[in-house]
């Protein structure tokens, strides 16, 4: 959901502005930095909650707190998005805590708490919205993302497996599609614009057909020091889906007209990818500003040659994915 992924941008900006992480992290507890980080986190989190409510949830009817089962909606792409966002938020907040001089253990705890704070705010709002509801499976995905960060940082003091995202825009067909009663005309382009937006920024945040989520594995770190595998070269394992024009099925309404896609022509299917990737944090630089920049870039998977195996039984080669 767009409101989920916007938090990544908000947090990245907040870390850069409030923590000034382009300066070298403190070796000892720096109280001034703690106050700056704590105050900034409070301002960002409260501003985020107020802004999110007024720009998104206020438009929809509200009701008492209730649960909502959306386990397999959007072919699990939404769950992958939750995992990715919680992972990145926890890692980013951990770096902010380390900047203040907080020790490793408490920085990890801070990262998980702050990451879950942002995610839980969204889930609670969902719980009071009649359009959605509190999703236990969303919270499981959020916890999984934060746990993925915390486990690696605690046991390896490194992120050997990074959760990343890529999104390559799709040029949707403008060929006419007739409504179920043959009285109206639409197109995949119109449907995609309605669902995913018309700009690249909107598409990056919302288009599940364009997105791929990756587990980017740093091979070098799993072998003894001195092995010949380049430190910066990762193997990436990806997950995606295609022909998603609705949460559960490819049918929708435009005004009083309904449209349905033939499943034979537009089968909803899952994709599994194998590719190469770049771990920016393993690039040899001592410049604190570049390290901060690279940390931000490390949420994105670098386009590279990719092999796809999908549930349609096909093997596809992509020059860039």
Looking at how many chains there are and whether they match, the oligomeric state comes to single chain
One letter per element, helices H and strands E, the order comes to HHHHHEEEHHEEEEEHEE
Instruction: Please count the beta strands (DSSP E, at least 2 residues each).
Output: 10
Radius of gyration: 21 Å
Q: Which structural category do the helix and sheet elements fall into?
A: alpha+beta
Q: Write down the overall mean pLDDT.
A: 88
Query: How many DSSP H or I helices?
Result: 8
Indicate how many domains the architecture comprises: 2
Descriptive account of the structure:
- With 321 residues, the chain is α+β, with helices and mostly antiparallel strands.
- The chain has two domains: 154 residues; 164 residues, no CATH class.
- The protein is 43% helix and 17% strand.
- The protein has eight helices and ten strands.
- The strands form three sheets. Strands 1-4-5-8-9-10 form a six-stranded antiparallel β-sheet. It has a two-stranded antiparallel sheet with strand order 2-3. It has a two-stranded antiparallel ribbon with strand order 6-7.
- Helix 1 runs parallel beside helix 3, helix 2 runs parallel beside helix 4 and helix 4 runs antiparallel to helix 5.
- About 2% of the residues have low confidence.
